[in-house]
Fold these 2 entries.
Entry 1:
Amino acid sequence: MGGFELDDKGYVIGVLSFLLIIPSIILLIVVVDMINFDESSNIMIKSDTSFHISGDVERNIPLITMQVLKESAEEVVKTGDSIPNSRIVLKNIVESRMNNLNANYKNNTGVTAKCIIKSLDSASDPFELEINSSISVTKDNISYKRDISQKISILGLNPTKRASGQFKSYYDIPDPLPFIKCKNYGGVNVSGGRINYGSSLSNYLRKTGLNESNSYDNASSPLYIKKCPYDPYTSHGNSKFSTLKNCIENGYYHESSDGACFLCRLEGRSVCSHYGFETFITPSGYHNQTLLRAPCSIDHVIFNDKTYHGIYPGEAVEYYTKENETFIIFLDNGHKTKYGLKSFENSGVFVN
């Protein structure tokens, strides 16, 4: 009986000991889970930080690119010097500025962010550029990388906001082409958002030996690139040319398969293989208008001194009369048709 009692007590003690061990096991499991959770949370925080910083880098690319485009165009306006290989030059400038900005992330958060600009080129929309980039973000052993393609507008405010006169966009980008072309012919002046040519455009045309070069004395054209809102373009001929008048006075640009794209304009080219745009170069008002033909008033025609067709003529289109002053532009048959104006049969080639 005594032995039995001892064994029974041992059994009880064993059970009690096991029960005492269970809390310790549970506590150990909880501690291990907490350690794992802390490590997982740390990884998640690092990953989340990397993801958000990559988003910041992506959002900064269009802003930096717009700044570079504006500053580059303004430098051409100031100096009249073209930017050869503009696509490569501007791509490198954007990449350098992006990585200077990204260095702040390393200093502030320990995150290494890099941005490689693969290309900067014309887009299918001539009022946009396409920039292709590779973004990589790294913190400790956590990394995030992806390739992106973005469209960058070269336009400032849209025409409806601009028309109110109460807004001015920081990113209004000037057209660099006239400043390059007229640099050696007297230069141009800028006033009220327009380029005033004085005698420089007539001097430029005269060097080609064309007749009626004086028809562009004191001519003007838009300073800033603004997309024409009148669609289709044939509507310019509506309401006794009032749409054409409004377009010219607001200085709008139009899509064109013949006109140069923005990047090629920075290089001083009036025509290129890319889908580009065009605008009107308007002569000053005439008194007792008798001139019927002169170089076509489209910018890529007037500045085209290097292709087979060169500068060709246009016929006078009177779009506005004020008292005894007549305002006209000269358009060829193709551009008359494009803008919904009455077409005419070309009466011959433009002679020297």
Entry 2:
Amino acid sequence: MSVNRSQDYEDLLPGLDISDAMRQRPLGLGSWKHLLRVALAVTVSYLVAEWVSRSTLGIFAPITTLLVVQSSPWSTLGVSIQRILGTGLGVLAASLWVNVVGLSWWSFLVGVLAALLVARALPWSLGGQMQIPVAVIFVLALGPGTLSADLWRVVDVVIGGVVGLLAVFIFPPQPRPRAFEHALSAYRDGIVEILESIGRESGSLTVPLSDEELHEYVTRSRALRDLADKARQELVHLVEASHWNLRAAGVRPQLDDKAMRLRRLTGIGIQVRGLVGAANRVFDRDGTAPLLDAEAFEALVDREVALMHVVLGPVGAPVAGVDRAQAGQQDHELGEQLRLAADAAFAAPDHADLLLASISIIGRLDHIRAQLADFPSWPDDQEEA
């Protein structure tokens, strides 16, 4: 089987069907604009419940609104479905239970335990699952009531959910592509910093490393995974914030390109981490003299870093190409230098282990070069991707 390269990024994008909506989690309080939106929605929910509801204690409507209003229509819908169904189910079941058996320590225990068992069986997020036992505890604490009062509690939950949905869908928050671009730039900067460290530190130690010791860049390189995860999270947030968002018309066409750039940058990051391991194995080790000496290796790494700056942009800048012609020239020159280094390694006396290690290093540098040539840095590359 094969995969079309133009679709190689689809696993980075979140699912947007109903099962994914049911697993949506609250994303935090967010900006002051979001806090103002939540406060206004909760107040409106309270006023509507006061006007419509016949509940003696109309707290379920504003509480539901407080819990469901999120920073995007998609996440709000997912959380709302969970909260409305969870709270409605919990309120209705607990009301029937307490009216039938009354309130005692054992009825409270059985009611909460049953709510937890039902919640655990549902394929929802933890917040949605916990909404059922929370609603049950509320109702049990209020004690027995009339059937009419119990039904109005469910209506209050629906009122709160509807108000929360309207608060986001009528004028949704605008998506923030800048957050993703910032995370992508931080990932690129981390890759460049590690690559520079490999070239600068390999072969520079006065005392050889023991078998139990590592170069410092090995431990630092592990942070690249966290940077990649952060960029993926921001991409997911951006996709979800753009779904069903009337203010995201200019963002949605860019999502595939953003996912493609993250996929290609992740591939480069993986190769750099592989280079970390290969260089750590060969350089500054007692009794080994790598066929690719440290000075030549650093020169190759410097050329690779220079190519990165042209193709991916300088450190601190957005991830984008700077000069296409210069990139082509530097790519050609680096390719020639890598071939010369490989020829020199093969021409050295027969040391199979050192030859394999040196060729592994040169091969990874060439793979990174090829990935940079394939990176969608230029407008027409992005259109083709």
